[in-house]
Write a structure and sequence with these properties.
By secondary structure, this protein is mainly beta. The chain has two helices and 19 strands.
Length: about 210
């Protein structure tokens, strides 16, 4: 069987490319933050408010919806975590159909210092909103990370119940991603504004990211 590559877009939906052929599986909607669900399927944010799952057969099914604008997702130990464009963290428990807010993320230390990364241009404020750009977990799913613009990279070591900061928010440009060889080196990588460095985290302790 030939492998299938999924290509998401900001406005034209999602395409599946297999061999020399291309099929549009989702049309005329933004598709964000594709992520594996650990069971051979793919999760994606569709149309800003819908979390969907693609089966290996190519069929898409709605998993949950939210009035909030969704930005990113990941599956960890059968629990799905979803970030929003207003910097909230939601959770879908196994067998559930509702994205529940994680109160511990709303009350994490230092949150009151977060700010939207915007600028005044010709008298108008432009730029992305304060929001969660991406989420990641370490290799065994015991540590969760969220990339907040602009709010650094909060971390949870108890399944999302409580969260704590790891880096100064002024270092943030973050896109925390699992390293390609994370099972071997146990690292989470993040890009930052600090001289365009790629900063690794090889521990869940206090020295989480070295800038």
């Amino acid at each position: 069987m030939k492998p299938t590559t999924l290509v998401s877009t900001w406005g034209d939906g999602l395409f599946a490319v297999t061999g020399g052929g291309r099929t549009q599986e989702i049309a005329d909607q933004p598709v964000r933050s594709m992520a594996p669900d650990g069971r051979g399927s793919v999760l994606a944010i569709v149309g800003r408010h819908s979390l969907r799952r693609r089966a290996s057969s190519g069929e898409w099914a709605n998993v949950a919806t939210s009035a909030l604008e969704l930005s990113c997702c990941m599956s960890v130990r059968d629990t799905i975590y979803v970030g929003t464009d207003d910097a909230r963290m939601l959770r879908l428990t196994p067998g559930g159909s509702v994205l529940d807010p994680i109160d511990g993320f709303d009350s994490l230390p230092g949150r009151d210092a977060w700010f939207a990364g915007s600028a005044i241009v010709n008298g108008q404020r432009l730029g992305p909103p304060l929001g969660i750009r991406s989420v990641a977990a370490n290799s065994n799913g015991s540590v969760l990370f969220a990339n907040v613009h602009v709010g650094g990279i909060p971390r949870s070591m108890d399944g999302g119940r409580t969260w704590h900061p790891t880096i100064d928010i002024n270092s943030d440009d973050g896109l925390p991603i699992p390293a390609l060889s994370r099972s071997e080196i146990g690292a989470i990588l993040a890009s930052t504004n600090s001289e365009a460095k790629i900063t690794p985290s090889r521990t869940a302790g206090s020295r989480c990211f070295a800038l």
